[in-house]
Each structure stands twice: as C-alpha cells, then as structure tokens.
Amino acid sequence: MGVITETKAEKAIESLKAYEADAATVLRHGHLTLLPAAELVPGDIVEVTVGGKVPADLRVIQLLTTSLRVDQVGWWVGVCAVDWSST
Fold first, then answer.
1. Are residues 46 and 35 in contact, defined by beta-carbon separation less than 8 angstroms?
2. Collapsing DSSP states into helix, strand and coil, what is residue 51?
3. Of 2, 9, 65, 71, which one has the fewest beta carbons inside 10 Å?
4. Which H/E stretch holds residue 32?
5. Based on the structure, what is the number of domains in the chain?
6. Over the stretch 12-70, which tens digit does the pLDDT of each residue have?
C-alpha cells in the first residue's frame, strides 16, 4: 500500500513541475536580467508578462494594465482562475 501511495505522490509532483517557472526576468543593479528562478531572493523585483509563469510568491507593486487574470495551480484542487479589474 505504501509503495502505491508513494508512486502516486511522485507522479503528482512531476505533473506540478510543468507549471513551475524555470527562469525569471529580474531587476537587479538597474537592469532587467534573465536568471534561473532558483536564484531569486526576497526583495527581487520580477517582471511578469502575458502568458508568463510566476516564478515565486510575489507581491504586485505595479500593474501596467487595467485587468489581470491569474490561473492558480492549487496543491489540492487543480487549476482555478482569478480575475481582477481596476474599473
């Protein structure tokens, strides 16, 4: 029974990795730089563009749009959409 549960858990983790961002565009030393997402540190300013994957837990400090749609991958329920509009 434990082997089956462990195999299912490993498959679930592998499928979630498809949603994981490999790289991030980060503002460092006054320039936007493409870095591996694993090199992000607290306080980094990250640029996220249309269709991009969010590489970490982020705080939105500026939006260059009047609306935002985010697909969230939940560990327990799959994918759900969140809409936001400034109007």
1. no
2. coil
3. 2
4. strand 31-36
5. 1
6. 777 767 777 888 999 999 999 999 989 999 989 999 888 788 887 788 888 888 887 77
Q: In whole angstroms, what is the distance from residue 64 CA to residue 81 CA?
A: 20
Return the structure tokens found at 69: 């749609």
**In angstroms, rounded to a whole number, what is the distance separating the alpha carbons of residues 11 and 30?**
41
CB 66, CB 85: distance < 8 Å: yes
pTM: predicted TM-score of the whole model, two decimal places: 0.61
The whole-number pLDDT of residue 26 equals: 93
Q: Match 């195999």 to its residue by tokens.
A: 7
Q: Which two tokens stand for residue 58?
A: 């982020």
HSE-CB at 83 with a 13 A cutoff on CA atoms is: 2
